[in-house]
User: What shape does this take?
Amino acid sequence: MKFLDEYRDPETARRYVQAIHRCVTRPWTLMEVCGGQTHAIVRHGLDRLLPEEVTLLHGPGCPVCVTPVERIDQAVHLAGNPEVILCSFGDMLRVPGSCRDLLEARAAGGDVRVVYSPLDALALARRHPDRQVVFFAVGFETTAPANALAVAMARRQGLDNFSILVSHVLVPPAIEALLASPRNRVQGFLAAGHVCTIMGTREYEPLARRHRVPFVVTGFEPLDLLQGILMCLHQLEEGRFEVENQYSRSVAAEGNPQARRLLEEVFEVVPRRWRGLGEIPASGLGLRADWGEFDATSRFGLDDRPREDAGECRAGEVLSGVLSPVDCPAFGGRCTPETPLGAPMVSGEGACAAYHRYRRLEEAT
Assistant: This one.
């Protein structure tokens, strides 16, 4: 509790808010990239403490939300295979595919198990040598090292009944795509602290120089976010476009060298389709050819053809900051956490889920 008290102190928050109000002399639009930061901002009402000149947009930083429809369909297909135990994090179970989700697949008899780590899936593979165990490997650079480690351990332990269904995505190419869009209005970014804990801060420097936008690597507590916003606004007001590190208690410029080496050994950069955003070049991770025996897509001959989200879902516009969740015509009516049209309404890091949980009643009023 002492740690939380330190980063939620109301007096410090008041000083940051006052400094933000003194700093701002013109309109600015910022974007936080991480879905966890989005939930913290909406939950604590941080955006409502800012001057009206400052707009906060929510970016594509929810890995569950950007997992493409065809990956969900592949996972559902595997769950229907009686020889397969499909392992997944719990927040993937309600994400809609083109026909059903994993929770429906489990209700239909599929062996879908919620795990807390890819190492749990490895343990299942050891206990069930007569079954194929597939781990649904979803996430940004944050979760990829653990999945790379699981694959390396499976090889060392000779587990030929273990594989992963890979849907890893990378943050900087997505930011590049947003900045290159003619609909972009973002002038500064709060970069996700957990991603930078793995990858470091240097890969944002070319983006800052090329697009003349500041980046502030930011943590997840209310004071982290307020300080990160203040640092980003100071840069904009002073005409600077640099990469600054608010989250220095966790992030080093070089990141985590051991984790990065493991990523480079097991994975390679590939094009990746993002749900609602389409294909972004060099924005994903796939298993290298010499680790290909652990690739569930090739092991089971899965159909990898692109599929589109539900026609009414406006997730792409929400994920790119063009549309606020409450501006979607289906929000809170035809699209709810119980009857979602798209992933941002069911993910624990989705912007639509955050607004529905914390602001649905007042927005409706």
Notes: The two ends are 35 Å apart (CA to CA).
